[in-house]
Automatic annotation (TrEMBL):
Entries under Pfam families matching the protein: ABC_tran
Protein's organism: Streptomyces griseoluteus
Name of protein: ABC transporter ATP-binding protein
Superkingdom of origin: Bacteria
CDD domains: ABC_NrtD_SsuB_transporters
Length: 268
């Protein structure tokens, strides 16, 4: 069996590489601007990787490469052992929810379920499941413009989960939300990731958010971004009291270490 046949077989059978990400010597340029690279990075199945770095260091570019929205100028990107395909490889959540505001929550989710190829007879059950996962039970009939920014971002997360991809990519999804809503959503995403065993790559500016969410943190240098720090996070990941965790000395030390690394990497 060739390596590509093996990769295909693994994807079909939900193999060991499902949702795993591999970047080999990846550089990306926009015209004359080198945005990132070279970056070598392997994200095993089930890991929650947070990419942190100063503005413009290439975090979004890396995420776009993993999603397949861009092809690398040099090097290779593989997801689940194969080339990423935009729209199919991963569920993606952006900084703003990008929903259809005049449609209902149901309408927005149905579009995603249709695109994901879910049989129409299963939509009601799947919709209820997705809304329960993001804490939005009973909101199906509400129009998007009627619900809060935090609720809209929850719908965007539910939509990204509609296809049940083994990889979820989030690009500063909570940046536009107030502090309390942001903390609540962080807690929900952390819990969801721990339950699902899905691979997650999350982009943020915030050392605090990175330490709270990640099982591993990669800090990038300033543009063109390369890996400045690769740090496993050993904080407990099961059912935890979020406030206790955020207040623990270990959390404080990790946050300080990451914040310091981001500052030095941006200045280097
Ligand atoms: N479509 C594009 N065309 C030209 N240059 C781009 C494009 N997208 C990004 N860049 C440049 O590539 C570099 C990396 O941008 P990118 O958006 O990936 O960084 P980022 O770390 O996500 O930034 P931020 O945190 O501010 O969102 C920057 O210099 C940016 O100006």
């Amino acid at each position: 069996m060739s390596s590509s046949e093996l990769a295909e077989a693994q994807v079909e059978s939900g193999g060991a590489e499902d949702g795993a990400v591999r970047l080999d010597h990846v550089t990306h340029r926009y015209g004359a601007v080198t945005a990132v690279g070279p970056v070598d990075l392997t994200v095993p199945t089930g890991e929650f990787l947070v990419l942190v770095g100063a503005s413009g260091c290439g975090k979004s570019t890396l995420l776009r490469l993993i999603a397949g929205f861009e092809r690398p100028s040099e090097g290779t990107v593989q997801v689940s052992g194969t080339d990423p395909r935009p729209g199919d490889t991963a569920g993606v959540v952006f900084q703003t929810p990008r929903l259809f505001p005049w449609r209902t929550v149901r309408g927005n989710l149905d579009l995603a379920l249709r695109y994901a190829g879910v049989e129409r007879a299963r939509w009601p059950e799947r919709r209820a499941e997705l809304l329960a996962r993001v804490g939005l039970e009973g909101t199906e009939a509400r129009r998007v413009w009627e619900i809060s920014g935090g609720q809209q971002q929850r719908v965007a997360i539910a939509r990204a989960l509609a296809a049940d991809n083994p990889l979820l990519l989030l690009d500063e999804p909570f940046a536009a939300l107030d502090a309390l809503t942001r903390e609540r959503l962080q807690e929900d995403v952390r819990r969801m990731a721990a339950q699902a065993g899905r691979t997650t790559v999350f982009v943020t500016h915030s050392a605090e958010e990175a330490v709270f969410l990640g099982s591993r943190i990669v800090v990038l240098t300033r543009s063109p971004g390369t890996v400045a720090l690769d740090l496993p996070i050993t904080l407990p990941r099961g059912e935890v009291d979020a406030e206790e965790l955020r207040g623990s000395p270990e959390f404080g030390e990790l946050r300080a270490e990451v914040a310091h690394a981001v500052k030095s990497a941006a200045a280097a």
